[in-house]
Amino acid sequence: MELTGKTAIVTGGASGIGLATAKAFLEKGAKVVIADFNEEGGKQAEQQLKQGDAEVVFVKVDVASEESVEQLVAATVERYGRVDIMVNNAGVGVLGVTHELTYEDYHKVISINQDGVFFGAKHAIKNMLENGDGGVIINTSSILGTVGEGGAFAYNATKGAVNLMTKSLALQYAEHNIRVNAVAPGYVESGMVSKEALGDFYDALVAKHPVGRLGQPDEIAHAIVFLVENEFVTGSTLMVDGGYTAQ
Fold first, then answer.
1. Among 80, 106, 155, 202, which one carries the catalytic annotation?
2. How many angstroms separate the CA atoms of 8 and 91, rounded?
3. Which of 48, 64, 115, 132 has its Cα between 20 and 30 A from that of 11?
4. Residue 121's closest CA among 174, 180, 183?
5. Could you give the C-alpha distances from 28 to 21, 59, 76, 92, in angstroms and in order?
6. Does an H or E element contain 3, and which?
7. Which domain of life is it from (predicted)?
8. What is the pLDDT of residues 117-138, one digit of tens each?
9. Element (H, E) at 54
């Protein structure tokens, strides 16, 4: 798939993997909508990436709200005419033992990680079907959609669901030239996942990755671009995890 002139929405686009993905799309000549609940961060990301003739805009979204996601897609179509690529990247995690997990925290993870994928796919696909020439959905899953981890009950549940949602959508819409894939990162360096934030636990995380380090946001972004560009890949979850799940 040639990305020049295509329009991509990236949820959770204000930071981390989302911001790196937005940048990678722009470098390929795409028009990008950075969608995030963090308005200040989203506007900063827009200004950071808006260089030269780059077509990029920030739109605030709450992916747990279908109305908000529908408005996001409508705003994208109003500005750029269509949606070609939808990256459902926004996510959240709540850690702790399950018998102490509140329903509110559990439901928060479900509503963002799982409902957000449903709403994003639903409304992007509606536009893609109207356009009649296909499109691509990319869902951000996780290694924890494949392997379990104590204390990550809700997160495990949502990312496992994302993997199967991806397969189901791919089968439903293949005949319409709409491809659906997921990327499953290992632990990725960020403000929350760093030596400074985690202390000694950081070294334990690194040790779980055979390559001997954590991932970088741009490495996940490159994998997302690959899944968008390769027109023979659909229904797949691509592990980008430094060998974590191969053990």
1. 155
2. 18
3. 132
4. 180
5. 11, 21, 19, 28
6. none
7. Bacteria
8. 999 999 999 999 999 999 999 9
9. none
